[in-house]
What does this fold into?
Amino acid sequence: MKIQDIRSLAEIMDKHGLTSMKINDGTLQIELEKQPAPLAAPASAPAVLLPPAAPAAQAAPQQPAQETAGVDFNNLKEIKAPMVGMFYTAPSPGAEPFVKVGSKVKKGDTLCIIEAMKLLNEITSDVDGEIVDICVNNGEVVEYGQTLYKIY
It folds into this structure.
């Protein structure tokens, strides 16, 4: 690996706010880690105007309890991120997501895409079942081993 490749990896870390990255291609293993900057209050921080908080009555409705009735939460299968990257629920912006909570999936069905180093990697289900939880929001950076989905 060339020094330019390592610099590119460091730029990816900065761009996505990562503090560590591990890469293993079978013959070469690289671990990059940076210490977070110390927290110091600026001398005069600019005022930030936040929109008023929405009342609790206007909060998004919760999923009905009957959707998870009968689910044995001790037997959930977790689908974990096989790599560090950007998590996408749909094949393109504005498209329908691959799966939603309540979707039935079969082994091999595409669940999401993780973009790593400009490559789009489809993440597939390794079990048959029903999606009971999506643990990551679209467009978030995921870490290796982070739980993406819970399937029953």
